[in-house]
Design brief:
By secondary structure, the protein is an all-alpha fold. The chain has one domain. The protein contains 13 helices and no strands. It is globular and about 55 Å long.
């Protein structure tokens, strides 16, 4: 009886080991797919807002506030809700240098793009603005190693090539018109600077939330609250006049959900992966427009959409660059 038992127990032990390994692999897959699902939902919310603005231009103009004050109110409401959530669960709040990082993230993510959008919207086309913002993932790939986001462990293999391919694809779908005046040239430069500011702010946010182990909502409350204050002041200075109508409609609830997803992703993704929303959202908006309006699409646009989809997929699912990780560990 000894020989059979010696044969059975190793088999049982190996089977249990395989089962536990499979469970761990499934858990790891869930941890990978959940943030990607959140990013896709965030991009879908953005795309739905853009399509709504295209199909019903007057709907977005019905807000009772101007663009700066409207965004200030939205961010202020979100900051209050995030603060209440942080107080309920009793999570630590950013303080000192971390508080300054949260303010910088809010300025880069919300204040700089809003101000530059206000002063450039009459000087360059919306399609050119969308195309130029596709540079955001490229900036994130460049900035993230230097800002030491997540100890450099999230460096993407082939991230630079994928970001460049995505930019090329976006320019095929949204051709950028060359500036015809100094004003339009400075406006285009401002949009590029805004894309860089968003990428840097994303890197700072990911760095602070992941390495300092802050709960995303407490960080979000400080970040969104400071941005709301600055945008409110800018709106009053700019005489962002009040019109008749509601300042907070049903679509604002989707905007609040998008903000929650944005800060939630900071705990679970690298900045380079997060900024692929500037590629995926226009892609989804185009696909939704194609399904609803059925316009004629040339082969150039199809090639561009394919490039965007392929590059975005690579940036989301690309393995970590082992060489970058080793270099980061040696530096530290």
């Amino acid at each position: 009886m000894t020989a059979p038992r010696a044969q059975i127990w190793p088999t049982v032990h190996c089977s249990l080991g395989k089962m536990l390994k499979a469970l761990r692999d499934r858990s790891g897959m869930g941890q990978t797919w959940l943030p990607i699902g959140g990013l896709l939902l965030l991009s879908l919310l953005w795309a739905a807002g853009w399509v709504r603005a295209d199909l019903s231009p007057g709907a977005t103009a019905a807000s009772g506030l101007g663009p700066l004050l409207s965004e200030a109110v939205l961010l202020g409401v979100f900051a209050v809700l995030a603060a209440i959530g942080g107080a309920i669960v009793k999570k630590p709040w950013p303080g000192g240098a971390e508080c300054g990082r949260a303010v910088l993230a809010g300025v880069g993510l919300f204040v700089v793009p809003a101000l530059l959008n206000l002063f450039t919207k009459e000087r360059i086309e919306d399609t050119s603005r969308v195309a130029l913002f596709s540079l955001t993932p490229l900036f994130a790939v460049l900035f993230e190693p230097h800002l030491e986001a997540d100890d450099g462990k999230n460096a993407l293999r082939g991230g630079m090539q994928a970001a460049l391919a995505a930019v090329a694809g976006t320019f095929l779908v949204f051709p950028v018109e060359l500036p015809r005046s100094y004003a339009s040239a400075f406006a285009m430069l401002g949009v590029v600077m805004a894309a860089g500011a968003v990428a840097a702010a994303n890197c700072v946010g990911v760095n602070t939330v992941q390495r300092r182990k802050f709960w995303p909502l407490t960080f979000a409350s400080v970040s969104a609250g400071s941005a709301s204050l600055l945008l409110g002041i800018a709106g009053l200075i700019h005489h962002d006049h009040v019109r008749s109508g509601a300042a907070f409609d049903a679509w604002a609830m989707l905007d609040l959900l998008a903000l929650a997803l944005l800060f939630w992703l900071m705990q679970r993704m690298s900045a380079a992966k997060m900024t692929t929303r500037f590629l995926i959202a226009p892609l989804l908006a185009n696909l939704m427009s194609l399904a609803l309006l059925r316009p004629h699409v040339g082969i150039q646009s199809w090639i561009g959409l394919a490039l965007i989809a392929t590059a975005s997929g690579w940036m989301l699912f690309a393995p970590e660059d082992a060489a970058a990780s080793v270099t980061s560990l040696r530096i530290h």
